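User: Can you model how S-adenosylmethionine sits in this protein?
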Amino acid sequence: MKKGIQIIYKEVAPTYELINHVLTFGLDMVWRKRAARNAARIGKKRILDVCSGTGEMAQNLARRLGHPSEIYAADGSSHMIRVAQRKKHMRRVQFVLADAGRLPFPDSSFDLLTISFSSRNLNPDSQSMLLYLKEFYRVLKPSGHFLNLETSQPPLFIIRKLYHSYIRWVVKPIGQKISGSRAGYNYLSHTMPRFYDAPEFSSLCRKAGFSSVYHQLLFLGAAAIHTARK
Ligand SMILES: C[S@@+](CC[C@H](N)C(=O)[O-])C[C@H]1O[C@@H](n2cnc3c(N)ncnc32)[C@H](O)[C@@H]1O
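Assistant: Here's the modeled complex, given as structure tokens:
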């Protein structure tokens, strides 16, 4: 993980969740729960949550999936991991400090790999995104599942414009104000309008080797859950 991104997550870690909940009116929690419910339906045993951050997705998974599921949470920021470790239900989660592009696991290690609100971070361009997706593919067992929850691009032009204006005029300044990190919310709000729409991300998943790629739009397409199979 690049040094600049590590500094950003050091700065935003203490207020990261609060800002998300305020700026999405709590919808980010609803979406993570929904993604975790989908994951629980898949009913997998060995799970890796990549770019786990403050661990909200891993916590949802730990709540939903009983024993004997084994849950790993990997992130490149020790500051974000520290916040996650203080949470309830995390005793069963094994934390790993790791770059998403070089996961410290052998091929075919996991039944399910999840990632939430982080693919944007791994996407300076489609070639880089593809390399990360291939790394996720590598650590999944044959027939293993991939689940990606991420902001997306509303298909309706007018909604998309309103959404981009909201990011520019509300998410960026309020994020900067609450976190005290100018660079952090410059960066986070910059990545949102530039990420793929749902069909484009599906197409990248297929390029990385995944099959049975499906997506579900959330809140008029402001976010999307993608599921796919190795
Ligand atoms: C926007 S946060 C999302 C956290 C969490 N998944 C959620 O749902 O809120 C992005 C996380 O990705 C991590 N991250 C960014 N680039 C990474 C990389 N190359 N390798 C590992 N972690 C990375 C950051 O440290 C941060 O914790």
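A couple of observations from the model: Strands lie at 46-50, 70-75, 93-97, 110-116, 140-151, 211-218, 223-229. Residues 1, 5, 9, 51-53, 56-57, 75-77, 80, 99-101, 116-118, 121-122 surround S-adenosylmethionine (CB under 6 Å).
User: Helpful, thanks.
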